[in-house]
Amino acid sequence: MYHADVVINLKKGVADPEGVNTKKALELLGFDVKEVKSAKIFRIILDAKSKNDAKKTTEEMCRKLLANPVIHDYTLRIMVK
Amino acid sequence: MEKNIVGDDGMKTSDIKVCILRIEGTNCEQEMYYSFKRLGAKPELVHLKQLIKNKNLFDYQCFMIPGGFSTGDYVRAGAIFAALIKSRLSKEIKKFVEEGCPVGGICNGFQVLVELGLLPGFDKKMNVEAVLTINDSNRFECRPTLLRNENNGNSVFTSKIKKNRILMIPSAHAEGKFLFQKDREEKYLQKLIDNDQIVFRYVNEDGEYAGYPWNPNGSFYNIAGICNPEGNVFGMMPHPERVFYRYQHPDWTRTNLKTLDGDGKIVFESLLEYIRRRF
Question: How far apart are CA B166 and CA A74, in angstroms?
Fold first, then answer.
């Protein structure tokens, strides 16, 4: 069994209203914040023949649903459980 | 496509069957249903599961995806709905579009069509070329918006609207900011213009392109609605079905009620006229 952590980030240069507003709120609470970037994490638990297979399947998931190539980048971390 | 056009009275309005697709979380499908019904057509609310199991898309002349928050807008607005359609109905929809049948998406429906790769539809392979992402304000924006019709006649959903006419159609969305990939922005915009794919753009009271709040989401080039290069697939963020009657406009008591027609009605009229001519 594998745990795949998929982090969906916004590409460089894409506006991040969630990040900007979170920064504002943190500053109102008195924190000194340089920048906040929002991202989304999915933990996907799957069976696969090998770590490489798990990676390939997860990449396909990103292409087909989890990320929109127009604005998103993704990073993967595959763990054996 | 040409050979099937049989003149103005090709098909009776009362014979036009419209498929309005439902799934968990769609809304305004009832308003859309009544917009078609009040104009004399035969709309039908069809759940995605019904369309997959026991209905045939080709029994309908038009396919509409309503607004709402399909499947809770998880992952991204419209992404799961689009993935479900793609997995089960991809071939049918592709053929439906290729045959020139009209496909429309309002609000969440627009997001679904973009996620499906049917809009802007530069290549015919249903690749995702654009996105409708989170509003600049990071909020749900719900207010009347002014749209200028910029189409030169390519879009079948707006054929009856005079060019440059400004319509008041309300917006209600949290993810409506239309964007292209940064490095392809200029190239794709030029394609939209060359193919006559831009339909509605947000303007202010004076008809000028303006920023927030006139453009509620920060959309690229003030884009509110586009069609595909052939003009038969159309998506827009604001809700024309919410202003079918003039008294649904927020200012109707302060302005002369010269007509009962709301600004959204003409979108459905244009569409039905196209279907009458086409079939």
Answer: 41
- Residues of A with a Cβ under 8 Å from any B Cβ are 11, 13-15, 17-18, 20-21, 64-66, 68-71
Domain boundaries, chain A: 2-80
Take residue B93 and report the two structure tokens written for it. Answer: 């929809």
Q: Which of B75, B87, B139, B219 to mutate to test the interface with A (most CBs of A within 10 A)?
A: B75
Residue by residue, DSSP assigns B5-66 as ---TTSS-GGG-EEEEEE-TTEESHHHHHHHHHHTT-EEEEEEHHHHHHT--GGG-SEEEE-
Query: Looking at residues B81-105, what average pLDDT do you find?
Result: 95
Structure confidence by residue, pLDDT tens digits, B246-265: 999 999 999 878 899 999 99
Give the domains, in start order, of chain B with CATH numbers: 2-278 (3.40.50.880)
| Separation between Cα atoms, residue B247 and residue A30, nearest integer Å | 48
Whether the pLDDT of residue B8 is over 60: the answer is no
CA–CA separation, B242 and B19 (whole Å): 19
- Runs of H (alpha helix) within A1-81: 17-28, 51-61
pLDDT for B135: 96
Phi then psi dihedrals of residue A52, to 5 deg: -65, -40
Distances in Å between the Cα of B260 and the Cα atoms of B41, B164, B271, B273 are 19, 22, 19, 20
pLDDT higher than threshold 50 for residue A81: yes
Closest CA to B141 of B108, B176, B112, B168: B176
Alpha-carbon distance B193 to nearest alpha carbon in chain A (angstroms): 20
Instruction: Examine the residue annotation and report whether B107 is marked as an active-site residue of this protein.
Output: yes
CATH topology of domain A2-80: Mth169; Chain: A , (3.30.1280)
